[in-house]
Amino acid sequence: MEHVRWIADDIELTNPVVVAAFTGWNDAGDAASTAVRTMIETSGATALADIDPEPFTDFATVRPHVALDADRNRSIVWPTVGIWGASLPGSDVVLVLGPEPALRWRTFCEQITGIAHRVGAPMGFTLGALLADVPHTRRTQIIGTATDSDLVERFDLERSRYEGPTGIVGVLHDALSRSGLPTASLWAAVPGYASQLPSPRAAFAVLDRLCTMMGTPAPVSAIAEQIADYDAQVDALIADDDDLVTYVRRLESMVDEISDDDAGAEPTIDDNDPGQLAAEVEQFLREHDGDG
What we know:
The chain is of the alpha/beta class. It has helices at residues 31-43, 105-118, 149-155, 168-178, 200-214, 221-224, 227-239, 242-260, 274-287, and strands at residues 4-6, 17-23, 46-51, 65-68, 74-77, 81-88, 91-99, 124-132, 142-146, 158-159, 183-191. The strands form two sheets. The chain has a nine-stranded mixed sheet, with helices on both faces. β4 and β5 form a beta hairpin.
């Protein structure tokens, strides 16, 4: 952990679950990063450490910012991956959030794996979001995958059989698993036609599913308040495009047909076809091979 700068190592955490998300192409609609950021902001989380960005960041792509203090003195704010700790009802947690590193992914993941073992984490979650053929007017689809048989059965997850290109979420998931920590990966589906808008619907869905699996209440009230505005923005975006309106209606019909086939079961936040969404994840990763 030579690249980890500890800020507060005296916080008492009991078997904290590690939850990691990164901004970048793993984070369509800012859904995964918003979920983790919301947990940080609502839990009173304590900053535990950060990871030196110098060895891992392409600063021409993810640029530092200039900031001014109250006396108008300038300073550089570097794009750093931070680590926070918090005690939640039912579970302690270590939260990892920052920009996706561009360089030395294996060394970067060694830093987080070392942190996880230092705090005694029993398991980890990675979060992501992807653009998919889904409508914004229906419940967000979530695909949960794992390679650990106990987690697959316990949380009703898909067993990961994906082969192909991956991002830092996949690499960290693998690194944690290989170090002995069982892990699960949760992905939210974001409408491809609304890719330029942050999606509180997707953030709500992934946060709700994560917290259910962790056994802690999901702090989704602030996110839920943004959904009506999001829906209105997307409705306005597609209103003047007849082809797009037709496309969205077709997506709605496809989702409704799947729901109708569910023998009248009450819809849940991830009750759409997980196999179809898993295929969307695989296609998304392949299409972004070499993007960054």
